[in-house]
Amino acid sequence: MIAALAGTPLLAGALLLLAGRRTGRAAPALGVLVAAAVLALAVAAAVTRPATRFALLPGWPGGTAIDGLSGVLVVTVASVLLAILLFAAGGGYGARFFGLMLLFAGAMLVTVTATDLVLLLMGWEVMGAMSYALIGYEWREAEPVRSADVAFLTTRAADLGLYAAAGFAVAGAHSLALPSLAGAAEPWRGLAAGGIVLAALGKSAQLPFSFWLSRAMIGPSPVSALLHSATMVAAGAYLLLRMHPLLAATGWAGTLVAWVGAVTALVLGAVALAQSDLKQLLAASTCAQIGFMVLGAGAGSVSGGTAQLVAHAAVKSLLFLCAGAWLTALGTRRLDELHGAARRYRLVGAAFGAGALALAGLPPLALWVTKDEVLTAAGDRSPALLAVGLAASVLSAAYSTKALFAVWRGTRTDGAPVPVLARVPLVVLAVAACVLGVLGSRGVADALGIPGGTRVNGLELAVSGALAAVTMVAVRFARTVPAPAWAVDWLFLERAARAGVVRPAFAAARALARFDDRVVDGAVRAVARSGPWAAGLAGRGAELRLDGLVTGVGRGARRLAALARRPQTGLVHTYYAQAAVLLAVLVAVALLAGW
Amino acid sequence: MNENPADVAPELCVLIAAVLGLVNGLFLPRTRQWRVAVICAAGLVAGLAVAAVDATRPDLVVFDAFFVDPITHVTRITVLGATLLVLALAAGPVRDHPRESEHYVLILLSALGAMMLGASSDLLVVVAAYLLASIPAYALAGFGKDAHGTEAALKYYLMGAFLGVVMLAGVTLLYGVGRGTAYGTLRAGLADAPSAAVSAGVVALLAGLLFKAGAVPGQFWVPDVTEGSPPAVAAFVTTVPKIGAFAALLRFGSEALPPGGGWPALVAVISAITMTLGNLAAFGQDNVRRLLAYSTVSQAGYLLVPVAMAGRTDLARTALLFYVAAYAVTNLGAFAAVLATGRDDLAAYTGLLRASPPLGIALVVCLLGFVGTPPTAVFVGKVLMFGAAIDGRYAWLAAVAAINTVASVFYYLRWIVPLFRRPDGALRPARAASAVAVAAALFSLALGIGAGVALTA
């Protein structure tokens, strides 16, 4: 069942990539069909909850399984995939695009259903590689490829934590199964937790890795929609939610994760508010919203984090698709050039409005409930966390409003029409963005079998809703929204990474290359030079004597050989004489020997 | 006294085949004389079969003149097998020759002499066997009636006559001081005999046996006969009589002499001189038959090592018997290759490996076999020989043999290396001789690899 679920998109994607242009116009239809089949399989799997046990490495049992958490996730991934591929079907993308998207989604499905670290790592790595290919989809231009490099190298560097975690798991728990990690012996448990947290933060674009998400915006909008909603960045959050027992067991890891999530939500909220590019705004808001999920994982609210993940997936894929629709139709993603876009395209505008309001956390839309479930759990842990979280939700209301009014202000008449096929998923996703808040209710979470449910604090809900409404009104009437340089430039994180990591790495590489050239290579050359020198010495000194000895032996043997042929005179009388003498000598020998 | 003729049935088979061959040859037209070869071969095969059956029976003495024991069995089987190969080699060149049947019969009679030599338990029988083995061989050496052949036959005969007379004198002397000629009697009688008389007698007796073995001081005929007589005859006289001679030497050393004499030292000195002389003289040879002749002299030197150790270690008998069989096969293989190419100069063998791969490989196997390269039979023989020397506390002899073995690589390689070069002329090896060479090479490998089986049997 799970093999079919993950295998279908992987196989179909690989075949599409192999077939390439030969599929022609059939590629979009094939992609959508496969996505629909995957959704059906995902729903069936979420209902039947299958589990398969097998050992990828002999002696290290593992496998795949679907429980409450992964059941929700596979359905989410499959739904978002179908919606996005449906949207992209009208966008003129070819077989390579659909193949990569399917492979990417398949890898994500492997990741969320894996129960051991090896399989998880395989899914995780394939997902990373596919993200590289998708961000650099327009590979003929230099900038997308550079951005893909940045994104891939950043996530890949953080991924090393997962490898380290696998090693520590083997050392500490003698098992690669995910549930066994919480029971590992110290210090291996702490080290494994550190590795997993590192990998998850990198994948989720949390601080300090957030900058790669900004660079990833250069990819096509459907790619952004998939990467930033139900997959890739969500994978990090999923891993932290999945490994919550381990985080809780170590003590420090849960607190660390909670604070990283909260701070990311706050700071990247500010970054989002400062952006003047719609996709960059949405990307920063993705970091901020994922920050809430990470906060939930750290604070122990698995159901809250999961609900936030699902609701955010719907909202963010909707918003990215709307941005993509406008980008295609109007040729811009700058907020000040999108004035009137919503009025020009009313359906897209309405859908975007629903998504933006949900993102703002306005009651009773989806994110209002799910975010507050996380915040309630955070408040139980520490009032400071609650305060930071509330501040972050104020910021999210602010940037949502900024985007919302940017597209609804003014009127315009230009622009190409949005295809009908692209409108269908927008409507569906908009509805989902409005109603998915039910996931936040405890009953639903329990029914789905997701642990760690918290009762939502009514007072907190009211405060948060009121804050969102007030902020929206404030932003509506504010003359200007502050946009400090640090926020516009994503906290200079990329520059910092370049200065702090990339340049030292290159400097060290150059230094090592010099060391290699001068010292190692020099030593080798010196050895090579000393060889002939020593050989010359040996040739002048020892060789002559040895050679003389060998020549002497040869000459001696030659002389003896000539001597040995002397008795063979060919004359019988000399034979007789020799034989007689020899026999006499032999008699003497025999006598001497003792007869 | 056991006088059952069935106990010498293999010898009788050969004798009957020889007589039948001779009689048939008288009445057969020249073009049908090949039937004599068939008769002789049948006699040899029958002899082999009987000898193989005999080998499973307990040891005994026949007519007070022959031992039937493991030495006899191995001598018989080796002589019969080797003679069969020689017959196959000789059949081609003498086909339709006016004296074709005589050729086969002479070969058989000489082989019979070799078999008797190895089995005899009495000095007088040894002398008779010596004459039987030698006289047909003289005739064979001059069979071609050409200048070289005649010279070779004459030298062979003169050396044989001289050393034979010396041997007879030795037998007389030993009879005088030992009060008998049977080995058992001699062993008892020589114990308190004057040492000068014994040593003179033993050395004189050795003169004849060493002549047959081709060892110093009876080695003079070997190069001349090998080069001068027809190749098949050369192959025969450097192989078959030697088998009997070494068996007789071993038997005399271990059964006719009282323990504790000068025998080991005497034979060890002869052995060392023989192998060294043979190797050194082979160094500069450009004629492959002369090279092979000296090679057989040096091999005789190695074979004398276990003879010297006779009675000192049980390994001596095993080593000698295995080595002599291995030597016979290898030597016949090398001579067969010479016969197949029909050329005597070393340069003619350039590129043989490409011209005729099976023959080339067979020759390489035989030559490497002479060196003692595993897994050939001579390798096992040499290992046993070294073991016997060290076991008999004659380490210096083992050292001399080892140095000689290393030195011998030189002239064998002088022959092997040109084989791998590009051929410069057309080489058309004779088919039958090539087949014999390949068979001998294969048998040498089989004997080497299956040495464990052969040694336990």
From TrEMBL, chain A:
It is a multi-pass membrane protein. Signal peptide: none annotated. Keywords: Membrane, Transmembrane, Transmembrane helix. The keyword Transmembrane helix applies. The chain crosses the membrane at residues 29-48, 69-91, 97-122, 162-185, 191-213, 253-274, 281-303, 309-327, 347-369, 384-408, 420-439, 459-478, 575-594. It comes from the Bacteria. Residues 114-395 form the NADH:quinone oxidoreductase/Mrp antiporter transmembrane domain. It holds the Pfam family Proton_antipo_M. The keyword Cytoplasm does not apply. Its main location: membrane. InterPro entries: ND/Mrp_TM (IPR001750), NU5C-like (IPR003945). It is found in: Endomembrane system; Membrane. This is NADH-quinone oxidoreductase subunit L. It comes from Actinomadura violacea.
From TrEMBL, chain B:
Keywords: Cell membrane, Membrane, NAD, Quinone, Translocase, Transmembrane, Transmembrane helix, Transport. The keyword Translocase applies. Its EC number is 7.1.1.-. The chain crosses the membrane at residues 12-29, 36-53, 73-92, 104-133, 153-177, 189-211, 231-250, 262-285, 320-339, 359-381, 393-413, 433-455. The keyword Zinc does not apply. Residues 120-405 form the NADH:quinone oxidoreductase/Mrp antiporter transmembrane domain. Its main location: membrane. HAMAP family: NDH1_NuoN_1 (MF_00445). NDH-1 shuttles electrons from NADH, via FMN and iron-sulfur (Fe-S) centers, to quinones in the respiratory chain. The immediate electron acceptor for the enzyme in this species is believed to be a menaquinone. Couples the redox reaction to proton translocation (for every two electrons transferred, four hydrogen ions are translocated across the cytoplasmic membrane), and thus conserves the redox energy in a proton gradient. Belongs to the complex I subunit 2 family. NDH-1 is composed of 14 different subunits. Subunits NuoA, H, J, K, L, M, N constitute the membrane sector of the complex. This is NADH-quinone oxidoreductase subunit N.
